[in-house]
Amino acid sequence: MSSKKAVIIGAGIAGIAAAIRLAVKGYAVEVFEANVTPGGKLAEIEKDGFRFDAGPSLLTMPQYIDELFELAGKEPQAYFQYQKLDINCKYFYEDGTKLTAYADKALFEKEVTTVIGEPASAIEKQIANSAKIYELTDPVFLQRAFSGLKSLFNKEGFKALFNLGKLDTSRTMYQANQNLFKDERMVQFYDRYATYNGSNPYQAPATLNIIPHLEQHYGAYFPKEGMYSIVTNLVYLAKILGVKFHYNSTVEEIVLKGRKAIGIKIKGEVINADVVVSNMDIWFTYNKLLSAYPKLHPKKILQQERSSSALIFYWGINKKFVKLDLHNIFFSADYKAEFDHIWKERSIYHDPTIYLNITSKLKPRDAPPGCENWFVMINVPANTGQDWNGLINSARQNILAKLSSLLNENISKLIISESVLDPRGIESKTSSYQGSIYGTSSNSKYAAFMRHGNRSSKIKNLYFVGGSVHPGGGIPLCLLSAKIVSKGL
Length: 489
Fold this sequence. Notes:
By secondary structure, the protein is of the alpha/beta class. The protein has helices at residues 13-24, 63-71, 105-115, 120-142, 155-162, 173-180, 184-191, 211-216, 228-240, 282-289, 299-302, 335-343, 388-407, 423-430, 475-487; strands at residues 5-9, 28-32, 44-47, 50-53, 59-60, 82-84, 87-92, 98-102, 220-223, 244-246, 253-257, 260-266, 269-272, 275-278, 309-317, 327-330, 354-357, 372-380, 415-421, 462-464. The longest helix has 23 residues, at 120-142.
């Protein structure tokens, strides 16, 4: 048994990954989770014979999951299996256009030139730009702790600074995409990637055009047992390494001695530790667990604009739709108006872009015979006190009308099971402030540098992982946050 002990607050994907990495390094690790199950936003719902991955539904860069098994001396495929998708997503436009985003580059270029009329050269240029941004930022920013300009004082950092123009920070995603593509449908296609980290393409810097590279170059994948199997398999691995998980265990306070974290408090009892790692949203970490120390709060960081949230309907559908795939997008006819409603009016546009995920396409057991499990999501503003009951009722009607029109079927008559998750539920279930899925937004060129670091600059032995801190939200970046923390210990 190690002489050093680490406690981790929260069993989200980053907390579990941090537990594995610290256990491999010889720490005795205990994870404390407020809910009765692990996973955080990466959860699942079972109801009326249907199973749904309740949160993240797209897997990219599974090598970071494999890496955790390899660190523990295990063969990844013996524990966690996944398949690469031939089709990343199907897109449906209001004008009747149907575009299939093939994983194969040549097939995708042919599809775009045939259906949209954009030349292959435009797609190739976008792919090259996205790859270049990734090449410049990955080693200096995504793979390392960031603590200001001094973090750039290395070979990779100087290379990134020398090629600053290629990072495209001075334009918005929309401006860059509009300049590259002639057809507004392709502009909308690439603008959508801003929603992968809860941002607005009309405000977010074009640097975020890095995101398509993660999907189009590395590929999109589906775990053979569903997204929640990421959680179950990593928890199993952690337990093999001796990590102890405590569920239904709400942490009340991070205990300090001077400016040094020495443990946590649960039900009035202090649990001592040499290292404290918080996987809780950074806003709640300070305002709940460190509320007694306001002078140690990073006020500017905590006051930043939050990312968007989501409204999700989990529908059991009494029919199979051959024309639909695992991932499907039904675009709004007016993308600008949709984002204006989210970010300016803090409301929901009457014609929202709809994301429809159907895991039963690849995992038939997720739905009864002849049925499909529909995960129906739209992007919505963070919770700032809106009339969510009214907004949800209106959104449900508009979503049903849109899907019924585009699929030529009365969808409402096919729903035989329903659950709903809105920003209020996301906040209460996952301690995500205002229900924002990705912590803070990336709606300015400085936002990425304003995320909280993975190590406290004011409190010794206190570390942070998860989507609300560096390097950002989404499964790959959450896993990287755990990697960065382990490097610093």
